[in-house]
Amino acid sequence: MVRNIVILGGNSHPELVDNVCNNLGIAPGERILTKFSSGESRCEIKDSVRGKDVYIIQSAADSVNDGFIDLCIMVSACKTGSAKRVTAVMPLFPYSRQPDVPYKKAGAPLSKASHPTKNGYTFESVPGTPHPGITRTQSLGPDINGLDTKLARTKLAENGVNGTTCNKADGPQTPSGAERRNAPSGSSAFNYTTHDYQNHSLLANFKSKPGYKQWVAQAGTLVADLLTCAGADHHVLTECRMDLHDPQYQGFFDVPVDNLYGKPLLKRYIQQHIPNYKEAVVISPDAGGAKRATAVADELDMDFALIHKERRPTKYSEMRNASMMLVGDVRDRVCILIDDLIDTGNTITRAAKLLKKEGATAIYALVTHGILSGDAIPRINASAIDKLIVTNTVPQLEHKRLCTKLVTLDVSPVFAEAIRRVHHGESISVLFQFN
Ligand SMILES: O=P(O)(O)OC[C@H]1O[C@@H](O)[C@H](O)[C@@H]1O
């Protein structure tokens, strides 16, 4: 039991809040967090926070923007209520993929290879990544028959929007988890929008202007600043989040930041659940994640391979195509893909497809954050991945119902211990030193 501490939860992940509190032996603090009909957030902290050490747990799940504003408002409310210190605990940090620029001069860097190679093999995952305007025409269940054809009938084409300026505000919205859950099977009620920067038809409408450098908002930095502002008067906002996409991001904050790691949990899963794991190969699905994956391979004394994405202009298109190439040998071996997050599932399913083609006998994908947005779940169900292992930094109950390949690892003991340590002024890095 920890004293003089208040744990509050946002609306993003109530189950994790309860589990963290159980681990600490305290009840979650009472608060009201609702919305006015206009959509504005309303927050009341019902427990006294005067002189207390307050921790607010909010992950970047479902309505990411709303959740972030709720968090800022809660931080501010606690400050106004004379909390001694307020710590934002973010198991998945919002906008952490956007401190860097997603565009290169010639357009989006992650454009897909749309032409089959000589032997008819393509690197596309199934179903394809949805683009803005694509109407999702069936439920998120495992049956994906006909989805590709239906996805091809894009709303952009139906509305004749292609070739005209696209107003993002008028575009389709990603449904919330609750909306997805309540959608009747076969419903065409929702449009899925993910990874706008991959949409060729949208990009084609935005010609770069000569003599002008295209700027892309670095939203991640702004989010860091906003959070600090919400409780900055005492310069005591600390952050805990697991496996930051870009570790340099830590330096953007003016306040202490504690970064937690999912690696020990993933490593333990490999050791305890993958038979003869020493004979398996650890693989990074792209060069950016190589350091992360080699760390696991080195610590477990395992072989390592890398999937390299190559981007070249082709005759067929002015856009760039990405092809994937395996560096290493996986023939007749079990493969363990390691990544920090799975969003649409495009990266990991394409990697799995390549590994299968190169002779892998079984494929595990171990990923810290299982966002699984859009059509990620049918895509995983249809993929060469045998088991997908994710932590519960975002809610996984509904995902598990829809995907039998999914295994989840509980992060609540790690977050509870981190909170206990921050509260007592103990080291956080020691937590990960021998793991
Ligand atoms: O392909 P999806 O799942 O949408 O996105 C996940 C990938 O995008 C990258 O930022 C992550 O590191 C990961 O490799």
Automatic annotation (TrEMBL):
Residue ranges annotated for the Ribose-phosphate pyrophosphokinase N-terminal domain, each copy included: 5-100
InterPro entries recorded: Pribosyltran_N (IPR029099), PRTase-like (IPR029057), PRTase_dom (IPR000836), Rib-P_diPkinase (IPR005946)
Superkingdom of origin organism: Eukaryota
UniProt GO molecular function: ATP binding; kinase activity; magnesium ion binding; ribose phosphate diphosphokinase activity
Keyword annotations from UniProtKB, A to Z: Kinase, Nucleotide biosynthesis, Transferase
Any Pfam family hit: Pribosyltran_N
Keyword match DNA-binding: no
Any single GO BP term: purine nucleotide biosynthetic process
Annotated Gene Ontology cellular component terms: cytoplasm; ribose phosphate diphosphokinase complex
Kinase in keyword set: yes
Leader sequence segment: none
Region (Disordered): 106-143, 158-191
Classification via CDD domains: PRTases_typeI
Family that this chain belongs to: Belongs to the ribose-phosphate pyrophosphokinase family.
Family annotation (PANTHER family): RIBOSE-PHOSPHATE DIPHOSPHOKINASE FAMILY MEMBER, RIBOSE-PHOSPHATE PYROPHOSPHOKINASE 5
Descriptive protein name: Ribose-phosphate pyrophosphokinase
Organism expressing this protein natively: Sodiomyces alkalinus (strain CBS 110278 / VKM F-3762 / F11) (Alkaliphilic filamentous fungus)
Taxon lineage: Eukaryota, Fungi, Dikarya, Ascomycota, Pezizomycotina
